[in-house]
Amino acid sequence: MQIKNINLSAVPAIGVGGIVFNNQNQVLIIRRNQPPAMGLWSIPGGKLEAGESLAIACKREFKEETGLDIEVKNIVAVVERRIEGFHYVIIDFLALLIDQECAEPIAQSDVAEAKWINLVQLDDYEVVEGLTEIISRTYSLSRGDCLAGLYAADAAATDYILSVFG
């Protein structure tokens, strides 16, 4: 199988993203102002830094891009993207706002805009590949009684495993 438009010299990097819903059942999205996917809408997130855990990276990136604090929960998606000379493996987390009362995002860092939108509005935005489905499934998971995804196996949140309850 041949993959087109791949920069074989691009070193794979690990990225994280946080999917957050507010009390009005809206999702927080950001518009990127840097490559890759500049101009497209996504969720807050970015690159893992050396020595950082996945959960800490997600919290840091979310704060840097929106000014909001989150509690990182379970892993809801793992995607691989090779675009514009970049190669990322991205781990997306369901996250919760720490303070629902102070939930107005402020676009910062490499973000042009940050805003809450209703899920039915997602189709009105040019979002990064695959994100609409991930957000929809994560919303269903977050509002239901079922447990799904990968959960931190310990307090250090360095290992994620399936939770099985019987």
From TrEMBL:
Q: Which UniProt keywords apply?
A: Hydrolase
Cofactor(s) required for function per UniProt:
Mg(2+)
Under PROSITE patterns, the record lists: NUDIX, NUDIX_BOX
Top-rank taxon of the source lineage equals Bacteria
Q: Does the keyword Iron apply?
A: no
Q: Which residue intervals define the domain Nudix hydrolase in the entry?
A: 11-140
Keyword flag Hydrolase: yes
For molecular function, the Gene Ontology terms on record are:
hydrolase activity
InterPro entries per UniProt: Nudix_hydrolase, NUDIX_hydrolase-like_dom_sf, NUDIX_hydrolase_CS, NUDIX_hydrolase_dom
The record's similarity note reads: Belongs to the Nudix hydrolase family.
Q: Which PANTHER family match?
A: ADP-RIBOSE PYROPHOSPHATASE, DIHYDRONEOPTERIN TRIPHOSPHATE DIPHOSPHATASE
This chain belongs to the protein called ADP-ribose pyrophosphatase
Give the originating organism: Candidatus Methylobacter favarea
Top-down, what is the taxonomic lineage of the species of origin?
A: Bacteria, Pseudomonadati, Pseudomonadota, Gammaproteobacteria, Methylococcales
